């Protein structure tokens, strides 16, 4: 057996591998025994244990099933998710936690449909392009698509949070994937607009310099009525919790809504695009 003396403190992957090895040996199993139970090769198990191969979501769920850890705080899936946060933009995992508890979500997006409104197919197309550019791995793309679904599911709670979405016109003009994917995405947007706890608007190109934001921005209102904002640069995401800094953004968002198309006009624009009408 190719055994390395891993230092669990060397990296999250090393800690994962050392824990996997410890649990396996505590049961008196060889790597071949675990591999057979998890339906993986012994070479794969060895690589994960020795830190040569990072764990995947599918592998983590398999070993959770083998060890009886499914849905528990000790699950390997939970540990994997903590590791994979390293592939997400710094600051984003913290934001997602607050997003899942917010009572009001105000978002403005440029260029792409925001994650909370994406269909799985649209999300997969977006991440597939990142894989093509070698910005992320196929495993990371799969996890990001799943994260979109988990974020949407978290918001499907009672009472429902108020979600106000203003999309730059570029979001709906930019084709992503084949026509069927865009048709389904347009349908998702139209259904989103019908919900009692949502408002959908479009900031048309004609707004020009009157558009108060040049980059995407999200403003959250928490259950205690505190507010925070989230914005991203190319290097990291920034969660701002200082009310004095967030209030001007909230004011600018109100100005954005006042200048943007009404929900009825936005729905009409999306419906025309869906029919292929300019």
TrEMBL record:
Record-annotated HTH cro/C1-type domain positions: 20-76
Domain of life: Bacteria
Protein name as annotated: Helix-turn-helix transcriptional regulator
């Amino acid at each position: 057996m190719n055994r390395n003396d891993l230092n669990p403190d060397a990296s999250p992957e090393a800690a994962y591998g050392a824990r996997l090895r410890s649990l396996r040996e505590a049961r008196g199993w060889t790597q071949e025994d675990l591999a057979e139970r998890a339906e993986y090769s012994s070479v794969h198990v060895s690589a994960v244990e020795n830190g040569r191969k990072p764990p995947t979501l599918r592998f983590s769920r398999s070993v959770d099933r083998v060890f009886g850890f499914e849905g528990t705080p000790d699950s390997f899936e939970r540990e994997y998710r903590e590791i994979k946060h390293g592939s997400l933009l710094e600051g984003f995992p913290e934001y997602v936690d607050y997003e899942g508890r917010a009572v009001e979500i105000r978002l403005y997006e440029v260029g792409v449909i925001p994650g909370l409104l994406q269909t799985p197919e649209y999300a997969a197309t977006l991440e597939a392009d990142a894989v093509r550019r070698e910005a992320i791995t196929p495993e990371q793309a799969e996890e990001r698509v799943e994260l979109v679904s988990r974020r949407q599911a978290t918001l499907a709670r009672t009472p429902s949070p108020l979600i106000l979405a203003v999309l730059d016109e570029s979001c709906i003009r930019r084709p992503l994937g084949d026509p069927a994917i865009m048709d389904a995405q347009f349908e998702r947007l139209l259904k989103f607009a019908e919900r009692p706890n949502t408002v959908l608007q479009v900031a048309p190109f004609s707004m020009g310099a009157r558009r108060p934001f040049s980059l995407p921005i999200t403003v959250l209102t928490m259950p205690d009525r505190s507010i925070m904002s989230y914005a991203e640069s190319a290097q990291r995401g920034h969660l701002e919790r200082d009310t004095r800094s967030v209030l001007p953004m909230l004011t600018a968002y109100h100005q954005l809504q006042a200048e943007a198309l009404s929900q009825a006009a936005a729905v009409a624009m999306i419906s025309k695009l869906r029919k292929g009408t300019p």
